[in-house]
Write a structure and sequence with these properties.
This protein is of the alpha+beta class and 288 residues long. It has three helices and twelve strands. Strand 1 and strand 2 form a beta hairpin. It is rod-shaped. The chain starts with a helix and ends in a 5-residue tail after the last strand.
């Protein structure tokens, strides 16, 4: 038994010495000068490179395909986000423009009411136009003031530029406004407007119709009344509907009236009858 263990121990020593010899041989080969590759090495190298190329090209193409899909997905999401941002920006810009325009109109309205306070004791109730009907047989402009706000029929309605109409119907919280061009139409509900010249109360006339050219026709002007082109026409207050002093328009032309005994005066309205946003309902304090 002792002899067997001794033999195995010597065998391990022999293996260790053989391993050291191989190690030193490898070190000598690697540390020495490098000689050109032999043809077996070149063959193996070329074979491995060609085989790798066979697998690399399809793998690279597949990887590139999926990479392109991923990039397209990223671009799609970026474009979607960009479109949403542009839409939001356009909406915000439009809203800003609307608010700026509204602020400008309200500032003009505020300045107008301050000026009017210095000239008369009328109460100007600002109202917003909520609906406009374009039906030629049943046209109506609705404002957001009604009976609960003290609005009554036949109250004058105007903008900062001038007279636009009168209140035709009153409801609880809304009212219908009959525009100036509708008031002077030749129908059963037409109401002539008693007017005069601003700064010359001796002139008297009646606006009775609305011409197709977009001008008001002022009739019953006496031949001796001093009126000229460019004069400002205002309400005279004699018609018991429209209070005195509201600007109506500007004289554009003067010609002979009916039978040549009066003058026919064409008046261009001060106020526009389209795209009305805010109006003033004129309340005249009752005389005690």
């Amino acid at each position: 038994m002792f002899t067997l263990f001794k033999f195995l121990g010597n065998k391990r020593l022999i293996f260790l010495m053989f391993g050291l010899i191989c190690f030193f041989i490898l070190m000598g080969l690697t540390l020495g000068p490098r000689v050109p590759m032999t043809w077996p090495e070149k063959f193996v190298k070329d074979s491995v490179s060609w085989t790798q190329g066979l697998f690399y090209k399809p793998a690279a193409a597949i990887a590139g395909f999926f990479e392109d899909i991923r990039e397209l997905r990223v671009i799609y999401e970026e474009n979607k986000t960009l479109k949403l941002t542009l839409t939001q920006y356009a909406r915000d810009t439009q809203r800003l423009n609307e608010l700026e325009a509204q602020n400008k109109r309200l500032m003009e309205a505020l300045g107008f009411t301050e000026r009017q306070r210095q000239t008369n004791n009328y109460i100007y109730r600002i109202a917003e136009v909520v609906t406009v009907s374009t039906d030629p047989y049943n046209s109506a402009t609705t404002i957001n003031l009604g009976d609960t706000d003290g609005i009554k029929e036949n109250m004058a309605v105007m903008t900062v530029d001038g007279l636009v109409g009168r209140v035709s119907k009153v409801f609880g919280f809304h009212s219908n406004v009959q525009l100036l061009k509708e008031i002077t139409d030749t129908d059963n509900n037409s109401k002539a407007i008693a007017v005069t010249v601003k700064g010359n109360d001796d002139v008297f006339g009646m606006i009775e119709s609305y011409d197709k050219s977009g001008e008001l026709v002022m009739n019953k002007v006496d031949q001796g009344d001093q009126i000229k082109v460019g004069d400002t026409i205002i309400t005279s207050g004699l018609g018991q509907v429209f209070p005195k002093g509201i600007e109506v328009g500007t004289v554009t032309s003067i010609g002979p009236g009916e039978f040549g005994i009066t003058q026919k005066v064409m008046v261009k309205p001060k106020a526009s009858f389209t795209h009305i946003r805010e109006v003033f309902v004129v309340e005249v304090p009752e005389v005690k």
